[in-house]
Amino acid sequence: MSVTGYAILGFAMMLILTVVLVSGKFTPSIPMIGIPMIFALIMRPGIKDLSDWVTTGLKGQVSNAAMFTFAIIFFGVMMDAGVFDRIVSKMMLGAKTVTAVCILTVLATIVGHSDGSGATTYLIVIPPFLMIYKKLNMRPLVLMCLVSLTAGVMNCLPWGGPCGRLAAGFEVSATDILFTQLPGLIIGLVCCILIALYYAKQEKKRGAGLEKGIKPSELFSEADKTEEEKALLRPRLFGFNVFLIVAVVVAMFVSGLPTYFCFMAAAVIALIVNYPGAKMQNERLKTYAPTVLTMVSVLFASGIFTGILNNSPMKDAMVQTVSNLLAGGAAAHLNTLMGFLWGPLSAMGLNHEACAYTIVPLLQSVAADYVTPLQAAASYLMTFVPQVFVNPGTAAMYIGLGLAGLEFKDHWKFSFKWAMLICTLSFAGSILLGAVPF
Question: Of 33, 153, 273, 429, which has the fewest Cβ atoms less than 10 A away?
């Protein structure tokens, strides 16, 4: 098969997968396994090649699956013990309105994404805020949208993976890339706040907010709980549990330990201290099992998809084809053209590693008389990355979906347009401000 043929297969696979996922007619794990397998068979690989592709993809998801499994157990214990009820009730004293909650969601995501990890951001932000959203009759879709968009913009920071790969590809400083794309980053964050204000207005129109006569401090009272839920509360262990949560977050950020190991240790300690005895522990684990099973199956399915896409000839063919098509364009405006195309290409599944290490440096060399490596890197970063958490190939996004109890198709329909808008406005604003050339 020719290079063009492999490239067509790659883009077709991504397009078909996205359409099927958005349709909502199948649970995500089915098309994420079935569609890549069909396209793999079209390429007629040997048994060993196919096995290598799939095995490599699955290995890449093992740590995510482990992290998700034990994070669900840990946060499940914290919720059952009543920790988040008390924390959120305190937060509500400073966020009494729907507007304040939406803005606080964006700010909490900015802080939560300080380590550059999307999975960590979802694990830190979604559980407590989901309780607030439900109590105020706000849609979880709004929460998932605001967290995903803000985390996408924040993923452009130097310690995030995308910026580091670009710095390596161009052999420049990641900090220098940040300064070049800073106007775009600021525009992106401003867009996130404006979108939060927009949805605050929309949610209030739908009737969201505190009911008359209800005080924020009363939203999370024990009176609303069943006898079974009350039996699980551990008010005397509140201080210990808060300390454990803080310890986990600090360990993830500064210890250098794998995130999944931090949650493994925390889940074990939380179960032993809050619910001692095999009977109670087994009951808690059985309660969390459905969520864990659903999301872990999706993570492993995404491993099949990424394994086949990234390790088969499709990825290199897609890279080469795009490079060949664009290299012959008008060099003076090549960076501008690509700035408005990176977002859609990212949504179609164009591999980020391939772009950072090959396509973006190649295109910059073609237009070297008009755009510097820092400008090319910044242009790509602010337009390719912000929509990453609305992309069906991003494993961390499914962790957020699982925590919020949402399906990909609903999240995509709700958030994709905003992600594209942020990419476009960030780049256009950077051009107008002179950060990157037209």
Answer: 273
